[in-house]
Amino acid sequence: MHAKLIALHDTATSIGAATSSGSRETLVDVVAAAKSLNVDPSTAVSIKFLEWWWMRWWCRVGSGGRLDFNLKKLKKMSNEFESELGEFEQEKNSATASVLKRILLNCSAQAKQYGSCVAARVPEVERDMCLKEFLLLKNCMWNLHREQENVDMSGKASSSNHHGLNVSGALSHVYIQYPPLRCTLSGTRSFLYDDGNKLLLQLTSDRIFSWKTAPYDPNVVPSSDPLCEGPVLCIRYSLDLKLLAIQRSNYEVQIWNKQTGDTFSQKCRSESESILGFFWTDCPTCDIVFVKTSGLDFYSYNPELKSLHLVETKKLNVSWYIYTHESRLVLLASGMQSKSCTGYQLSSAGIIRLPRFEMTMAKSEANSKPILSAEDVHIITVYGRIYCLQFDRVAMLLHSYRFYRDAVVQQGSLPIYSNRIAVSVIDNILLVHQVDAKVVIIYDMFAESRTPISAPLPLLLRGFSRASESEELSDAEIIIYGDDWSFLVPDLICDVANGFLWKIHLDLEAISASSSDTPSILEFLQRRKLEANKAKQLCLAIARTVILERRSLAMVARAIDVLMTTYSQAVKAGSYQKRTDTEETSPSGVSNLNSPNIVVDESSGIDASGVQQEPARGIENESSNRFTQSTSGSDGSVSFESKKMTSHNLDSSSGITEGGYMVEPEASGAQVDSSVVQSQILVAGNKALNANASEQQESQVSSAAISPADLYRFVFAAIEEEMLGDASYLISIIVEFVRSASFEKLKVDPNTYVFMVQLLARDERYEELGLFVINKIIEPSKEVALQLLESGRQNIQTRKLGLDMLRELSLHHDYVLLLVQDGYYLEALRYARKNKVNTVQPSLFLEAAHASNDSQHLAAVLRFFCDFIPGFKNTADHHAYCRIVADMNSSIAT
Amino acid sequence: MGLSSGSNASEAVKLCVFDLRRGQNEGQELDKILFFYPADLPFSTQLSVTGLSEGLITFTRIFSPEAACDVIEAEMHSHVFYEAEPDIWMVMVVEKNKDSEAIWRIDALRRVLKEVHSLFVMFHGSVRTLVDKEPTGGFVRRHLYYFVMDYLSDFFIGKKLQLPNFRDSLKERGTVQMLTMGREAAIDVQSLVRVLESCAGNSKCYSLTMFQDLLVSTTLSPDDTVNLYTYAVLRLTPQALSSGVSSWSYLRKGSTACNTSAGAVMANSCPSVDQYYNSGDTSPVGNHSYHVVRPLQHDKWSRGKDGFLVTDIWGAEFGSSIPTSPTISLKHIEERMYLCAYQLNSLTVILLIPVSSVLDGVQGIATVKQQILENASLKMFKVEEKLLRGWGGENAYHVGGYRYLLVDSDRYISRASPPGKVTTLTKDSLIALSKLREEVDSEKIRANSDGLGHEKDLEVCIRAKNNAWLIARLTRGKELYMVLEKANETLLYASDAVEKFSDRYCNGAFSLE
């Protein structure tokens, strides 16, 4: 029963995920199917409900084209849904009522509300239709299910099917991996996060424990320092970890030198101001910044005097502030509504003041003036750009602002479906956690598009096997989106109640599986840096699939274009190469000291100076552990782009300069992609070489970019057998590939051309093959020439093409040899003499001349060698063939 | 031999098609004749031509059953023979009069016969099947008559039938001229071709792409390519559609003459065709009931609003005004193909779709056309633009100082100095070249009949009376003919010139020394 349930659920969700599925069963069908499968009908109906929800979602998300799909069916379904619910209410007392049925029954009120709301509005499907009803229903189901599960699970053997509302739980695009990093010390449960050093800090009465969170390793051992008694508001280690600053009160910050043990305090100068917080900075002019209600104080640390020296003060009324170390940006809120913001970026390049800007806030009533609070504003860093996200609780929108050096520009808004939200960034992907709805929506801000990458799905816990871990971790402990969760920048979740630290992961596979728009999903995958190899493999798999599915030529061509364009960009930026990462695996504590570079140069030079200064941060040994990957993929290269410069073409200029593409200075330029080099070396046996090199490469790729050689090896060659029946389609694809590569000025691997020749010859399309060769679409190479000769066994014209190619490549030896083999020994001799080829055995010419049974020719060949090869007259060949010529002449004479 | 009865200049040429299997009995000899030009010659004259030809064929078959007879050189005439199909012979008789223009190269004439027959087969199927279709021969006669007359109309200059003579020595009939393009353009063309051929669903389509009168790409076999290319140059390309524009192609003369001659065909068509029916045993009933398709008729193609070329040559379907789509048959493929041509400025794209794959005729073709417009029009636009940018114009393939003809006999591709440049050669040079080619032709035939399967390499360098160098080089299926006037007198100079040309323009194919 359980297995069947899962199976049914899978089909339902997959139907839901496939937006194009035209034939949806009605609820009646589902119930009938469920009955025949001996599955509880209510299960099926609730599954159907979810599917229905899916549909609703897609109707809403999609633009014009999707809106009108199946509207009638939707309406019909919603009506049926209600009647089904009625039936179930009658069966309320049935002894066989299952978990899901119970859910459905208990939430029937909400379900009905929602259903009727949708039914009432169905012809005009619109954004956020019946959202409130939906969320109510969903919450009801969720809570009930969780309760039920907790009761049930004690008696049941484990299965993969037990987190959250499982109907949707199995499908997820974002997950946290079990086990978490456990910070469960006895005693206190107070956690602090030092984002400058990426340390999770926990305080006990006399010690401070710190867990390194980058690279993320669940088994990391905490280090500890003694701590003096007293209140602690905030703690941050200096960026070199030598100093510890503790905010003791609103007026005092204490600084302790770990090495010397010295302690001193810095206090506010007057009672009229108070310290809101502080942070360490790697700005050259100062070391620590205090944020006070009256403004910013920049201090530098003086080791000799054991004191802070005030460098500069910025006067400003501050109601609250936010700071993230990865952006080096501090945002100061002021004004009645706290919505007027001023930003400072304190980078290695100095202090940049950003223009003041106002956040947008909708008013609930005419006279009300909502006050913006700090937790509703988030600074995020994606693709090296800095955004500020502001949650407008009245409008239920998440506004985004992008920071340029000289401007702050509002970029658009994202819809919000929850009263509590959280924001994470993984691998330049923005995750908006709709905490109340217990789903997460993911956005890729790259293309300035405000469309989610995929439908909202819950966060999933993976790798947790209840049976084995039950003694350590009870059910109650892991509550997805529990109240005790706090979200740390950029991609960590701290479960304060349990002392767990989770790292959020993206499931690229699931994301790519849920999208039908192949070119855009490829673009998405190509931008991934964190799991570059996985993204690359996924791209290759997608490429194989679209070809095997015989998708339209235009679509496949666009997909190939995407891959070639990103590869070309990666090569230009130098990020496509093997990692020589032995010297780069420095401890993250040290690497964090490196400064991010803020580019000040206004005219150009963003990428240039970026490359020069790019530190080795963020380069962790990716192959050691899949889940201990860098959390700081791009944070070292945050840059403000000059608005003036980028305004004419924001996307393209940023695409090149963005942090992810930058590389170590010693690597750029000097190293070239190994496969590109190989493709230029015309070694017959380079297939094997290539394979080895690529395997090494795979474990170390830093970019998802796919070289033309890889595309050939892992896509075209890999699917050759399956495509045997339809070579012409495959040829068309390869033509598109060659076009795309040529457009990007990329070199195509000779093996690809050899493959083309084979395909065309196998189909006996020699005329096209000829055109391909004559027009140099198939670029000349020895491999191709040899393949033409091979394929030319059945077609003399093709063989000639091969011979001509050898001649044009100046492969004199092979050319002469083949001429002789074909019986053109006189031509071969002439050619050999002209091009001074002396590596072909005279005996071959003589044999060929003998075979032609022409004594004159044989004599001529013999004479040739006598004249041109010193000492030939003394060889055995000479004697033997002299006799033969004599014999032939005498036989003619007689 | 008394064949040239008329003093009319047009009668200096006679062309006949006859079937040796017909009219075996005495008194029925006329039945053999399937076509005769000029049609108004008395039967006795016609019979004497066919009778002499048949006699020679029968006689020479005794010695050479496979290839009976190529040519008879009489004092006043040359008889050019071509066995188009087993026992279907085409004979052309040309007069060697004192008219200085009447200097022929036999192979060039035979290629005319070959061309008209190939085109006929492409549109109507083999002559033999048509003969078998109706025992009286009326069916095949009617088809041959219209077809050959329409074909010959292209050779009329004024009232005179001007067959290719020595002035066409630097031309090779039965070959295609290709556009040379850069790799990028070539890739784009191939990409376009793939898209086009995928427009008709899963069935295997073929295509031919042309820019002006030059071939850009083909997926057909070489001989089919030649046929379709020839037809396209004659009737479909932009130059052919806008008659009056002169062409540099050997296939078309100035087309002012076409109309008058086409009119001439119309005027005397019916009696001339009917005369054979009456001479036959049975008269076909309702011999006008069938519509004779005349693919070579002039001014019948035009470019439609959607860019597709339309014609009413193939008639219209019953009860509809939409013209029937043309169909042709290819040599190596059993099935007949719909011919669907699209034109965008200088770009002409011909798509061949198997008849069986299009279920409901007109409607099906319309769907394919719609697909082409949707999927390929942007690509075609880009390709046309790119080719136009890379094209060097009419004289693109002129090489200063050289007058040349380059033939790839494997692929039926040729390239030659532009006609405008060839006319600058003196008559003497051209006549000498014609003779040289005649020699080379016979040498090739000899090598073929030796049947070694070994391509003969040949090199001839002649200093003509007018001090021009005449050069012919054959190597491994490629031929190069060249005239160098105003050249230095040493042989070394001539051979150096060839070498340079070969390295520069032929990838060194002719530079063996």
Automatic annotation (TrEMBL), chain A:
Residues 574-656 are annotated as: Disordered. It comes from the Eukaryota. Residues 683-865 form the Mic1 domain. GO terms for cellular component: late endosome membrane; lysosomal membrane; Mon1-Ccz1 complex. Residues 585-597, 621-640, 647-656 have a biased composition (Polar residues). Residues 192-308 form the Regulator of MON1-CCZ1 complex N-terminal domain. One of its GO terms (biological process) is regulation of autophagy. This is Uncharacterized protein LOC111391098. It comes from Olea europaea subsp. europaea.
TrEMBL record, chain B:
GO terms for cellular component: Mon1-Ccz1 complex. GO terms for biological process: vesicle-mediated transport. Residues 16-125 form the CCZ1/INTU/HSP4 first Longin domain. InterPro entries: Ccz1, CCZ1/INTU/HSP4_longin_1. Belongs to the CCZ1 family. This is Vacuolar fusion protein CCZ1 homolog. It comes from Olea europaea subsp. europaea. The lineage of its organism: Eukaryota, Viridiplantae, Streptophyta, Embryophyta, Tracheophyta.
